[in-house]
Amino acid sequence: MIWRILVCMMAVLAWTAPTVQAQQGPLRIEITEGVIEPLPFAVPAFVAENAASGQMGQQLAQLVAADLIGTGLFREVPASAFISGVSDFNAAIQYADWKAVNAQALITGAVAVTGDQMTVKFRLYDVFSGAELGSGLQFAGTTAGWRRMGHKVADAVYSRITGESGYFDSRVVFVSETGAKADRQKRLAVMDYDGANVQYLTGSESIVLAPRFSKSGDRVLYTSYETGFPRIFVLDVGSVQRRVLESQDGTMSFAPRFHPNGQTVVYSLSQGANTDIYTLDINTGQTTRLTSAPSIETAPSYSPDGSQIVFESDRSGAPQLYVMSASGGEPTRISFGEGRYGTPVWSPRGDLVAFTKQSKGRFHIGVMRLDGSEERLLTASFLDEGPTWAPNGRVIMFTRESQGESGRATLYSVDITGRNLRPVQTPEGASDPSWGPLQN
Amino acid sequence: MKLSTKLVMLAGVLALAACTNPDRFGADGANGGMGGTGMNGGMVPGSASDPTSVAYFQQSVGDRVLFLVDQSTLTAEGRATLDGQAAWLSQNGDYTAIIEGHADEQGTREYNLALGARRADAARAYLVSQGVPSGRLKTISYGKERPIEVCSNEACYAKNRRAVTVLAGGLTG
């Protein structure tokens, strides 16, 4: 058995994704085909290799199960159905016992805790083929970061079975909301993709809106009323230091997003009645105007290669989606359906744009190809808006606001197939999610 | 409690009510009416009965104009209100104002910010056309972030689609 020994410290580490081998056997999910029947898996409590490991083996197994179940692609065979357990990580697998309970995938693991450090090992088995799928992996890190190690195990399992990269070891920056609807208090927060480990990045003295992660997840762009007027800010996630990027008197700036190069910011600037799209060099402060129509141009988002921008404009009368070169120029309209389209976000895979659509008094999150074809509405409610892509481009998170005076904002996620709509648990109201990269 | 004391307190409540938003431009300045002391006939300076006060501007002149769905065009009623605001501002030359544009909740956050800017600018441009020096006016948009009515139907939406002229400066300004 070859172990890849990986050091999983909380902040920085080099993680080479395991080589994903195309599986010819039955243990394979093609996400694009749309999964009707989730694949059953078993994940017995990870073996505690020493007394200090305590309940960690149980917690890790539960976390891995929650990640996989949460995709809607898998279902868990309950431990109560198990015929045999796993008490020795290196013992031979009794495939017949797992076949009998119809567990197509078996995940075994072991954990050893020493002080505030821990190591986690796991293996994935294709029960019906009677063979291990990929090689075992080992992670080491701090006990405080145990959830990240569990997410990495789940990412590896997801990746080996679907052939797609995972998204569980990732973070989401969002706006945490408290207070009555007419006096909402907002502050920036960051959390794990599943709502755990919430940390606040700003206070709630000023309105803050629509944070956006950089590609590497080290910085966040957002809009704040801290100076009295809406202005775009950049915040360093590690130090929580922030600075205003643009403060031209008599204007407002908002809707910022990073270029993939991390140096250029595209955003909207309102001057008088007119709103246009600009870029700003984050180092020099140099701004460039990209659009100059009298209509509203806002919500710009770069293509993954940084060469194009998708944005929203009401130049035709109602807001629609357009694509233009990253240097500006004549845009091409891509949305032609009935209704109003906004907040376009280019998929990290480059193949789709996610958007908010308002039609007949309802709001939808949808996706379409960049030429406007194959429009697909994934959700419908009183108010859904602001999609953000999981790093693998297979899942979208967005804001859903309930109606009336008790209206509250909640985060939801949904597959790009429209299946598996589910709320993301947050301690308070939450809006404007921006999904960061898979962590190293 | 004497009536005059009550009026002073009322004026204080109104002035504070205008200043509850911590982000609001000139929030301190809008308290200017509170700086007045003493009596001026039966009128309490800074109260709604004082035609030079913020409270009078809010209540008797009208500090806001409303808009139709997705529109930033002024209505006839809105223009009449702004005519009154322009006249008042020309008579009370030590006030400046910031015009806040707002949208109802039916729309995306970004678009509503831009729409609120259009509405605020429509009110600003009209006031300037009526002789208010542009240097006394600023605009800001809150998009859908600061509704004053919280129900989710047209009765509330109609009041939230607004441009509000918030005064700064005044007696002490």
UniProtKB/TrEMBL annotation, chain A:
Residues 420-440 are annotated as: Disordered. Residues 27-133 form the TolB N-terminal domain. It comes from the Bacteria. It is found in: Periplasm. One of its GO terms (biological process) is protein import. Its main location: periplasm. Part of the Tol-Pal system, which plays a role in outer membrane invagination during cell division and is important for maintaining outer membrane integrity. Belongs to the TolB family. This is Tol-Pal system protein TolB. It comes from Pseudosulfitobacter pseudonitzschiae. The lineage of its organism: Bacteria, Pseudomonadati, Pseudomonadota, Alphaproteobacteria, Rhodobacterales.
